[in-house]
Amino acid sequence: MDGHKVDRSRSSLLTRRLAVLTGTLVLAAAGTAHAGDDPDVGAGKCQVIKFCVGVGVDDETDGSGGQAGGSQGSSDSKLTCKLTKVDPEPPANHPAWNGADSKTNDLYFRSCSDGGQNNPGGFVAVPQGQPTPQVDPQELAQRAVDSMTLLGPDIASPKAAGKYTVGVPMWMWVNQSATTYGPNTASASAGGITVTATAKVSKIVWQMGDGASVTCNSPGTPYQASEGMAQSPTCGHVYSKTSAGAQNGKFPVIATSTWTIDWQGGGAAGQLIEVRQTNVQVAIGEVQVVR
Q1: Phi, psi angles (nearest 5°) of residue 78
Q2: Of the ranges 11-20, 48-57, 134-143, 183-192, which is most confident?
Q3: DSSP assignment, residue 172?
Q4: Which pTM does this prediction carry?
């Protein structure tokens, strides 16, 4: 092979690698890259999020993961992150550097996974001669969230012992506390880094048991007798049939809260989402007309 063919081959290889880097940056900017298993990265291997590296790759695992949430009061998946050195590095004007000087920094790609569908990633520039960061601010944010003991909605209405009627507006609302609605703030520290997270419920989705779903962006409005037959201005539902045909004669109502958590610290900031549920059984009758 002559020298011109070798140069063209090297140029083509560099172009393909930069294309992969650019594609990965788009995924990182999107905030979440969905992936399944996360195979080890080695010379000439690719991660499932389509990030490829050449020879001379150094792998680092930074920190142990916190836990992500599931149903009310439970959390069983762990967020773990891994740093992979980018070699060869992209040109100095490549967006992966995010303004860092390519002459005095090394470029790493951080891939994270909680064992499920939350697999964020992004590029990290580390000053040459300094050890790679062993603590991921997002992991610390998750640890702070785990310490909050976030719960599902504390349902005030409808009550399991309440009596409700077809065609009569039902007002739904929840009691507010730090663990059931927020705001709830906590911090976590490690490796000289402190991250503070603040959590608050951003919405509650009510599955009413009759096939209807109601999304409420507030805790709801408590009912007052003076309201009479008016519908709730913030969170309500009107049943069109009784619960007589349902199991145990009651509709299963499921209230699912979405916790939005904003965090910052360690030179980074971001947002996490947690979901919690609370169940209640509600009996719906109908007005009996006596003649």
Answers
A1: -115, 140
A2: 183-192
A3: -
A4: 0.59
The single-letter code of the amino acid at 219 is P
The residue assigned the tokens 């007005």 is 287
- How many beta carbons lie within 10 A of that of residue 93, not counting itself? 7
CA distance 199 to 178: 9
Q: Provide the token pair at 274.
A: 């947690």
Question: What is the rounded CA–CA span in Å between residue 145 and residue 263?
Answer: 10
Q: How far is CA 128 from the centre of its chain?
A: 33
H-run or E-run covering 268: strand 268-282
Per-residue pLDDT tens digits for 267-291: 788 999 999 999 999 999 986 655 5
- Residues contacting residue 9 through CB under 8 Å, at least 6 positions apart: 1
Asked if residue 183 has a cis previous peptide bond (ω within 30° of 0), the answer is yes
DSSP, residue by residue, 155-201: EEES-TT--EETTSPEE-EEE--TTTT--EEEEEEETTEEEEEEEEE
Helix (H, G, I), strand (E, B) or coil at 195: strand
CA neighbor of 150 nearest in space, from 194, 172, 183: 183
pLDDT tens by residue, 99-131 = 889 989 888 887 766 666 556 567 878 788 877
Separation between Cα atoms, residue 169 and residue 210, nearest integer Å? 15
User: What is the rounded CA–CA span in Å between residue 82 and residue 63?
Assistant: 9
The stretch 146-160 carries a mean pLDDT of 95
Spacing of C-alpha 102 from chain mean position = 32
**Which residues are bridge partners to 233 per DSSP?**
none
Instruction: Classify 34 as helix, strand or coil.
Output: coil
